[in-house]
Write a structure and sequence with these properties.
The protein is built from eight helices and seven strands, in the order H-E-H-E-H-E-E-H-E-E-H-E-H-H-H. By secondary structure, it is α/β, with parallel strands linked by helices. Helix 4 packs across helix 5.
Length: about 210
């Protein structure tokens, strides 16, 4: 099937296979019209799994779960924080969040987001990594942040788009990647595949 035929089969609709409000906000901000259809998959890490391999496997599973039979383009993503080769997922308790933040304090870590796109018989997958330098946190600052509750549901127990912006000294690479979706790379991949394009005027007016 040609690229044109593949894009015709998928139409111009874009389904976001994620419940993340941050990913939805990033896409809608630049004018994508979305249908949100979260994928229900097992996100358990496999023993010894490499962080990049992990996020790519999860993004691929999400897009596969939603794309089957869908007459639309489907975008899925997964984000994790990694340091010293370890995956720091979503903390389950305040104590676990505090432990993660102590590990990141004063050091550079990586945020990895994998995205997968499917439309007709056309697919694209990629992993984008950004380096994040966190300030050194003293115990009072750490306790205040954990008490805010912002860490809940966030990989690595922090949210760059929230008050944790004050905890980050530098980001090298895609900033939106750290938030949950490497927007420039996703838009470029959709363009290459013949998929939906953003409408920046529509996004800025919303």
């Amino acid at each position: 099937m040609s690229a044109g035929a593949a894009s015709d089969a998928a139409g111009t609709r874009l389904i976001l296979a994620s419940a993340s409000p941050r990913r939805r906000e990033l896409l809608e901000r630049v004018g994508f019209a979305l249908e949100v259809r979260p994928a229900d998959i097992d996100e358990t890490e496999r023993p010894g799994e490499d962080p990049a391999a992990y996020v790519l496997r999860i993004a691929r599973a999400k897009v596969d779960a939603v794309a089957h039979g869908a007459d639309a383009w489907v975008l899925a993503a997964d984000t994790t924080v990694t340091i010293d080769g370890a995956i720091l997922g979503k903390a389950a308790t305040p104590a676990e969040a505090a432990d993660m933040l102590r590990r990141l304090s004063g050091r550079v870590h990586q945020v990895m987001t994998a995205f997968a796109i499917a439309g007709g018989d056309r697919r694209r997958e990629a992993v984008v990594a950004s380096d994040v330098a966190m300030v050194e946190l003293d115990e009072p600052a750490l306790a205040d942040y954990v008490a805010s509750g912002e860490w809940r549901g966030k990989a690595g127990a922090y949210a760059l788009q929230g008050i944790a912006a004050a905890l980050v000294r530098e980001v090298r690479g895609s900033v939106t990647n750290v938030i949950g979706l490497p927007l420039a790379e996703v838009i470029a991949a959709l363009r290459d595949l013949g998929g939906p394009a953003p409408r920046f005027a529509a996004g800025s007016a919303s």
